[in-house]
Design brief:
Blueprint (H helix, E strand, L loop, with lengths): L1 E3 L2 E3 L14 E8 L4 E2 L5 E9 L1 E9 L2 E6 L4 E7 L4 E11 L6 E3 L3 E6 L33 E7 L8 E7 L5
Parallel strand pairs: 4-11
Antiparallel strand pairs: 1-2, 3-5, 5-8, 6-7, 6-9, 9-10, 9-11, 12-13
Amino acid sequence: MTFENNNFNHNLELATAEDTIYPIFSNHIKSPTTNTQYGPDRIYNFNVTILNSNGSAGIDFNGVNYTFTNISDVFNSSVVDLGVDTYTYYWWAYGNGVDNNYNISTSQNYIVKINSSTKTTLGYDTASPITYPRLLNVTCGDNIPNQVSVLTATNPGKAEEFYTNDFFYTNGC
């Protein structure tokens, strides 16, 4: 500080620190574990620990963004009734430093596979009288795969002459 000719001169130096606090993601937990078989109304849980978060975080699950606020370091999301598919997701959060720095986790995959443990075979009793055309009812359930083959007689007099129609569906029927 100096005084010259009745003038006051003061130099002030300010030092600012760069905000280097970013959220850190760890302990990714999936329940049930990935590559599980499809089941209707099943609940899928995804958890992550986020350090240095200001409490604002979320998950981008297969292109859909879900926002959370939390007071602890553990964040979770639940999704009900995922269909057979591979899903991609990542967590995101804002830091608790002065600039609230944004960060995302590494991309994660979650796989729901076809429940192939039960196969159903449709048969008929050759002794019963068969009239044509025949109506076939197909029922969907959690133990039926996503492909149904229907046999149709091309010549009702000859049981060996059949052709197959395949029908595909996803997420149940």
